[in-house]
């Protein structure tokens, strides 16, 4: 089925929900205005619909292939990547000093949603480059920027993030790859990395590997990790390509989904590398890029959900079965059956919630860098930090659940691979895992983000939601308002409970036992806030006669759907927040009935 | 990883939760006692572990194959089926008059859980035979029983249910297959059927197709459907096999999961068939077997969840990452991280809830047939009817969600096919779809089951839960009790609201809009009841020194895990019950933002 980029929804979410106007108002983006936003989203939609969506299925079927120490991209992907790069899509938010277009991060995130919707396996390639771009912009030397960054921004080369080792996944402090100084300023890099997305391919002449490894004298654990850059092909001082570097893929994984995204096992065998940033601060440097990548993964969750939603909606409008209670029509489209309509409406509501959260995180990231005064920047940095794990985890869980609902709407056809709904269900499943599992995100939220500023960022978002709640009284009466009020109250209770528990290190397990439920609570309620803001903006536009009335009224009703179907979870999440670590500690393997 | 049948948990659930003793007390099962139960479960576990589990992965990889009008089972499956049948597993609950073992349905359901856990694709083959057995026991003539039923009970032949046509899925009334009388009592059957599970294979000499079709003079719609039997190979009057019948598979589907279960497109081209039961009552006859099949599919949901749980638990005990807040140990098993322990504990709690619901449905089915007096039989029939859609839908949704959590516990390894966790996630996804989608189950619950006796069955289950609540005060204090009390209250409110709405045919859409949420509410709360009954029984056994104390204490704690993580959803489900059809009706394609 044909994918159509939801350009109108994306623009609405950026403007009316995430408030991208504030970013424009900083003056830091002279080339950005509303028209540019519209044009960029339109063009991204075009590329997604015409270049990338047609390759999604063949990518799934054929996948990337490995043979003789090299990876070949899935059929059509290498050409498509080069066309994508030539269109300037790899440097949207990069600095013009390095050839980028200097647009807001929030717009880049929005523009990439259709890319991931159209072809999630493809989208990972530029997404990883973006992470490398961020790392080099922040920590690279002038020479590194000149040599590598410009090529990444132009898309001539791609980037790869090389963190995980077999024994070091969520716990990167356990990694053992070594980098030994060669005496000439370069390093000799040795070790094995796994799960390296697009770590090798034939779409570009070179690939820039950003690799975590240890210097010979490094302290053990996370404080002894440094960040290195190792290009697949060495670069001569004049910028021309030289000899092949001493690393290679030794295989690609056979995965549940995203078959066209090669997931490489990489062997570095005395590869020539250079240090990026300061020795032993590699983990911190990598986290600058990982945090950006985390929001991008959140957008992937939204994107795959949107794709699944569109496909399910098209099927529901086409497939006829039974009699509708609304039309009385026998052989009605299944869309006219309330339970099918419910599924589609809840899917759409959750997608808009996730989109709002991710783009709000992008706006916060832009303002954290570019707001006018230091207090403002600190405020927005706090909000970016708080929202990042929520954007990543909530949106990707949502992506899986919505893709599963998409299968369900199709009935038996959903289980047949040719239909395509199953591919979304398979592809979506990676997003809660990579770039830090959603459990890691939850621990990051309760362990660091919540309390790093004494809870100020969390309290600020509660205050902002409460302000929206006051406005909501003008639009709805009764339950839709009460449900948001109760949900905000649950967030407040949970937040205060956690901040209190965090005072006592002996109760660390209570906090960790609460992590998942707290993240889900925050996501559910902040998601509701996003829809509430959208509904209020839609009501204003409707009054002003500005836009398609059916679509705007839909935004108003969609909040109600969300309030009835999702916001009620808040009290249940609150119960789980308070379950306590002691209860879980008692659930030993024996208690769980493990075979003796 | 090695599958171990949870024999101890199954016996506990049958006895302490589902109350299988009542079935024994009817006297209808003279060959059944506690020892027999234990022996049957042990033996089923053995077969599952040693015969079926080893074939699960190759079945996924190679699948059943189609060529030249015939299906070949996946490697090893045909031999395994014949060994399975020789073991007597296809006739556990069938009447001894036809060669069966005359054991309770509830025990058969319990014994089949390990079969489905070990190899869900395999388990479908005998499961479909069981459905055909039920239909022939209820509606077959003596000759049909002699000719076909005995062969199905012995497992010498298998059965297939042939309902769906391309235009007739959830709406079977739309089917068009024709059966024309031949004048000699037989019929000539013509039409195409899709989604025919194990519709063809090479494991047995014959396959008995139970086919819905229309007689030439049949009224249109669901009241013009009759049930026919068509064997793959015609049977001579002496019982020997004759000529090949005029039907054949024309292909098998390429599916997301259960690759070793051939899903056939079948073409009937003037096939010789016989009528089963009365003309034009085929749908009702088929529903006798579909209701039994629905509980069996619920057990599949439990089974795949148990398999995913075991695999995730084994991984979590083995994989080491980071420091545990409980042990302080660096490089601790990830099982010692609270968020991982939470996932596994919630998985286990939900599995036990689903197991309790399914086996209670089985007990109700046994008592509906065999209870001593007519009032009792009516009572238990009402309970069976009420629980059936819940057992099917709640357990299979749970199966998908628990399989997804199983992937998540594995982190990156979960997305790699070789690990096996992904296969469970793929296999599990069919169960909410077939034997009536879960949306159809929800509509059956609110449309028929809830009100067919004026709500008596629902009110009776509320009363029973309230009685357990009273006992719960002796075991827990505070929240675990409050949560169950609130949850029962939500069930009561929702039930009364629905019964009231159902008085007014103009509000049919409100009832349908509530269906999914009501089913989930019932499932969540009845599931909690199951765990509460288990906890009370475990406390008694603990006091009596009867059984492994760690495991029994685990049952008591597991209820608390469920109360904190699942029972809280009740209030949220109640909100969704009341959302109203009008809201959903307003969510038109335009409102949902469909491209113009």
TrEMBL record, chains A, B:
<dbReference type="InterPro" id="IPR052166">
    <property type="entry name" value="Diverse_Acyl-CoA_DH"/>
</dbReference>
<dbReference type="Pfam" id="PF00441">
    <property type="entry name" value="Acyl-CoA_dh_1"/>
</dbReference>
<feature type="domain" description="Acyl-CoA dehydrogenase/oxidase N-terminal">
    <location>
        <begin position="78"/>
        <end position="156"/>
    </location>
</feature>
<dbReference type="Pfam" id="PF02770">
    <property type="entry name" value="Acyl-CoA_dh_M"/>
</dbReference>
<keyword id="KW-0285">Flavoprotein</keyword>
<feature type="domain" description="Acetyl-CoA dehydrogenase-like C-terminal">
    <location>
        <begin position="463"/>
        <end position="587"/>
    </location>
</feature>
<keyword id="KW-0274">FAD</keyword>
<dbReference type="InterPro" id="IPR025878">
    <property type="entry name" value="Acyl-CoA_dh-like_C_dom"/>
</dbReference>
<keyword id="KW-0560">Oxidoreductase</keyword>
<dbReference type="InterPro" id="IPR006089">
    <property type="entry name" value="Acyl-CoA_DH_CS"/>
</dbReference>
<feature type="domain" description="Acyl-CoA oxidase/dehydrogenase middle">
    <location>
        <begin position="160"/>
        <end position="264"/>
    </location>
</feature>
<dbReference type="InterPro" id="IPR006091">
    <property type="entry name" value="Acyl-CoA_Oxase/DH_mid-dom"/>
</dbReference>
<dbReference type="InterPro" id="IPR009075">
    <property type="entry name" value="AcylCo_DH/oxidase_C"/>
</dbReference>
<dbReference type="InterPro" id="IPR013786">
    <property type="entry name" value="AcylCoA_DH/ox_N"/>
</dbReference>
<dbReference type="InterPro" id="IPR009100">
    <property type="entry name" value="AcylCoA_DH/oxidase_NM_dom_sf"/>
</dbReference>
<feature type="domain" description="Acyl-CoA dehydrogenase/oxidase C-terminal">
    <location>
        <begin position="280"/>
        <end position="445"/>
    </location>
</feature>
<dbReference type="InterPro" id="IPR037069">
    <property type="entry name" value="AcylCoA_DH/ox_N_sf"/>
</dbReference>
<dbReference type="Pfam" id="PF12806">
    <property type="entry name" value="Acyl-CoA_dh_C"/>
</dbReference>
<dbReference type="InterPro" id="IPR046373">
    <property type="entry name" value="Acyl-CoA_Oxase/DH_mid-dom_sf"/>
</dbReference>
<dbReference type="GO" id="GO:0016491">
    <property type="term" value="F:oxidoreductase activity"/>
</dbReference>
<comment type="similarity">
    <text>Belongs to the acyl-CoA dehydrogenase family.</text>
</comment>
<dbReference type="Pfam" id="PF02771">
    <property type="entry name" value="Acyl-CoA_dh_N"/>
</dbReference>
<dbReference type="InterPro" id="IPR036250">
    <property type="entry name" value="AcylCo_DH-like_C"/>
</dbReference>
<protein>
    <submittedName>
        <fullName>Acyl-CoA dehydrogenase</fullName>
        <ecNumber>1.3.8.-</ecNumber>
    </submittedName>
</protein>
């Amino acid at each position: 089925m044909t994918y159509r980029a939801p350009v109108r929804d994306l623009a609405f979410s950026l403007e009316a929900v995430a408030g991208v106007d504030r970013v424009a108002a900083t003056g830091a983006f002279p080339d950005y205005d509303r028209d540019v936003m519209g044009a960029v989203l339109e063009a991204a939609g075009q590329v997604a619909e015409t270049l990338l969506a047609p390759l999604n299925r063949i990518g799934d079927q054929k996948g990337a292939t490995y043979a003789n120490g090299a990876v070949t991209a899935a059929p059509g992907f290498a050409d498509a990547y080069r066309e994508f790069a030539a269109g300037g899509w790899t440097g949207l938010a990069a600095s013009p000093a390095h050839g980028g277009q200097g647009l807001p991060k929030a717009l880049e995130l929005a523009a990439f949603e259709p890319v991931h919707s159209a072809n999630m396996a493809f989208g990972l390639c530029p997404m990883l480059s973006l992470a490398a771009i961020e790392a080099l912009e922040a920590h690279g030397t002038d020479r590194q920027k000149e040599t590598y960054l410009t090529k990444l921004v132009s898309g001539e080369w791609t980037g790869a993030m090389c963190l995980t080792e077999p024994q070091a996944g969520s716990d990167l402090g356990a990694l053992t790859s070594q980098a030994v100084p060669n005496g000439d300023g370069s390093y000799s890099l040795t070790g094995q990395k796994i799960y390296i997305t697009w770590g090798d391919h034939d779409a570009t002449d070179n690939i820039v590997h950003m690799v975590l490894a240890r210097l010979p004298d490094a302290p053990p654990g996370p404080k002894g990790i440094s960040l290195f850059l190792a290009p697949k092909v060495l670069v001569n001082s004049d910028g021309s390509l030289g000899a092949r570097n001493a690393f290679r893929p030794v295989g690609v994984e056979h995965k549940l989904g995203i078959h066209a995204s090669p997931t490489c096992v990489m062997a570095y065998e005395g590869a020539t590398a250079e240090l990026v940033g300061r020795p032993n601060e590699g983990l911190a440097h990598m986290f600058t890029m990982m945090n950006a990548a985390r929001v991008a993964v959140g957008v992937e969750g939204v994107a795959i959900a949107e794709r699944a939603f569109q496909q399910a909606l098209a099927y529901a409008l086409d497939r006829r079965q039974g009699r509708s209670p609304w039309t009385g029509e026998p052989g009605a489209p299944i869309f006219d059956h309330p339970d099918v309509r419910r599924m589609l409406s809840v899917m759409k509501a959750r997608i808009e919630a996730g989109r709002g959260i991710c783009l709000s995180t992008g706006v916060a990231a832009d303002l954290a860098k570019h707001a006018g005064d230091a207090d403002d920047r600190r405020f927005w940095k706090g909000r970016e930090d708080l929202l990042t794990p929520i954007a990543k985890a909530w949106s990707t869980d949502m992506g899986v659940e919505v893709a599963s609902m998409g299968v369900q709407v199709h009935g038996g056809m959903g289980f047949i691979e040719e239909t395509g709904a199953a591919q979304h269900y398979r592809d979506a499943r990676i997003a809660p895992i990579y770039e830090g599992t959603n459990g890691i995100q939850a621990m990051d939220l309760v362990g660091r983000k919540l309390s790093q500023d004494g809870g100020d960022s969390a309290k600020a978002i509660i205050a902002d939601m409460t302000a929206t709640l006051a406005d909501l009284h003008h639009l709805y009466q009764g339950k839709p308002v009460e449900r948001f009020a109760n949900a905000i109250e649950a967030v407040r209770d949970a937040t205060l409970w956690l901040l209190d528990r965090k005072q006592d290190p002996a109760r660390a397990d209570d906090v960790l036992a609460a992590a998942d439920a707290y993240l889900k609570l925050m996501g559910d309620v902040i998601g509701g806030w996003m829809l509430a803001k959208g509904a209020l903006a839609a009501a204003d536009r409707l009054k002003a006669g500005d836009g398609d009335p059916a679509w705007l009224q839909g935004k108003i009703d969609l909040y109600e759907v969300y309030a009835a179907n999702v916001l009620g979870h808040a009290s249940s999440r609150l119960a789980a927040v308070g379950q306590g670590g002691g209860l879980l500690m008692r659930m030993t393997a024996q208690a769980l009935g493990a075979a003796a």
